[in-house]
Amino acid sequence: MKQSTQQSTDGHIQQEPDLEQNAGTLTSDLDLEKLGRERPACFSSLGSELAFCFSVVMSQILAEFYITGSNVITPTLVKELDIPEASTIWPATALSLVVTSTLLIFGRLTDMYGAYAIYVAGAIWLTISSILCGVSQTWLMLIICRALQGLALAALLPSGITILGSTYRPGPRKNLVFSVYGACAALGFFAGFFFSGVCSEFTTWRWYFFVGAILSAITAVSSIFSIPRDYSEKRSWGIRMDWIGLGLSVPGATFLVFSIAESSFAPQGWKTPYIPLFLILGVILLGIFTYVEGWVISNPLLHGDIFRVKYMTPLTIALLCLYGSLGIFLLYGVFYMSEIMGATPLQIVAWTVPMAVGGLILSATGGFILHKVSGTLLLLISCLGYVGSGLLFALIPVGGNYWAYVFPSMICGTIAIDISFNLANIFITTSVPKARQGRRVP
C-alpha cells in the first residue's frame, strides 16, 4: 500500500502514517496484552507457579504476623517476664527498628547475590529467631531475639518484591499476583491477631512464636524448591556494597527511630538528655548520608535517578504520609480496643475480621481492574480509606458502638492498605530497572 506524503511549512516531506503501520501497532499492543496474561516461561505448570506465589506471599503474611500480633501479647509479656515500664514498647519496637535500619542494606545484597539466596536465607533465619523468641527466659533475651527477627524480615521484604517484579511482565497476570500479595498484608495482620489472641487465652505466649516458626519453616522449604535461582545473573552485573552508605544509614536510622520511640517512656520525656542527643545525631547522619549518596559516590545504595521516573517523587511523599498514618492506626487502634473498649484478645480477633475478608475480596477483584482504572483515581480512593480509618477512631466516643465506628474503620483500613500497596509495588517494579528493584522506594 502506498504511503501519502505532505509538505511541511519548512519544505521537508513528512509521511502520514498508513493503515499498515497502524495495524502493526495494534498487533503489537495485542501481543503485549497476550504476553501479560500468559504464565511466565520459568514455570513448567500451574502447580509450580502456585507454589512459587505461595512462597513469596508468605513473606508478607509473616511480616504482618510478627508486627501486629506482638501488640496483643504485650500485656501478657509484661506480666510474665516482668518487663520494666520503660521497656514495654521494645518487644514490638525492636523488630521495626531493625527492619527500618537495614532494609536498604538487604536491598543491595539482593542486587548483589540474587533474590533467591537472600530470600531463602531470610526465611531460614526467621525460623531460627522465632524459636529463640519462644524459648526466651528473660525480657532482655526476648527483645534481642525480636531484633534478630527484624534482620530476617528486612531480608525477606525487598527480595520478595524483586522476585515478583522480575518474574512477571506488566499486564493482568502481574496485577493479579500483586493484588494477592497486597491482600496477604491484611491476612497476615489478622493472623497475627488471631494466633496471639488464642495463645494468650488458651495456651502460652510462647506458642505465638512457635506457630510463626512453623510457618517460617514451611516458607523456607517451599522457597528452596519453587523460586527460580538468579545468583549467576546478579553476580554478572558486578554490583558492589556501598560501605559508606551502610555506615551512615544504619546508625542514622537507628538513632532517629530510637529517639522517637523511646521519648514517651524516657524518665523526663523529650527533656531526657539522651533523647534529643540521639535525635540530632540521627538527623545529622541521615543528612550526610543523603549528600554522600546523591553527590559523592558513584554506586549509592539508592540511586537518585530513581526519583527522576515520572510521578515517583510525589508517589514517594504520598506513601510516606500514608504508611505513617497506617502505623498509628494499627498500633493505637489495638490499644483503644483493648484499653478503652475493654476488648479481650479474642474480641479483638473478631473485630478485625473485616480487614482479612476485605483483603481477600480486593485480591480477587484487584487484578482485573488495576490495569483498567486510572492509578491516580485508585490512589485517591486509598487516601480516603486512610483518612476514614483513622478519623473514625479519633471521633469514637467513650462507650461507642462497634458497628458504627470500629467496623467501618476496618473496612476503610483494608481499602487503604491493599490499594496503595498494590498500586505502589506494580508501578515501581514496572518503572524501575531490574538491576535496582531490590532497592525499592517504599
Task: Explain what this protein looks like in three dimensions.
The chain has 442 residues and is an all-alpha fold. It has two domains: 334 residues, Growth Hormone, Chain: A; 58 residues. It contains 15 helices and two strands. A two-stranded antiparallel sheet has the order 1-2. Strand 1 and strand 2 form a beta hairpin. The protein is globular and about 55 Å long. The termini are far apart. The N terminus is likely disordered.
List descriptors.
442 residues, mainly alpha, Growth Hormone, Chain: A, 2 domains, two-stranded antiparallel ribbon, 15 helices, 1% strand, globular, disordered N terminus
CATH class assignment of the largest domain:
Mainly Alpha
> What class do helices, strands and sheet pairing give?
mainly alpha
Could you estimate the helical fraction of the residues in percent?
over 70%
In CATH, the architecture of the largest domain is Up-down Bundle
Strand order of the largest sheet: 1-2
Q: How much beta, percentage-wise?
A: under 5%
In round numbers, the mean pLDDT is: 84
Q: Count of helices? A: 15
Give the oligomer, counting copies of the same chain as homo and different chains as hetero: single chain
Sketch the major β-sheet.
2 strands, antiparallel
**Which series of helices and strands comes N to C?**
EEHHHHHHHHHHHHHHH
Contiguous low-pLDDT stretches (5 residues minimum) are 1-20
End-to-end Cα distance: 51 Å
Per CATH, the superfamily of the largest domain is MFS general substrate transporter like domains
* Strands, total number: 2
Could you say what the CATH topology of the largest domain is called? Growth Hormone, Chain: A
Shape: globular
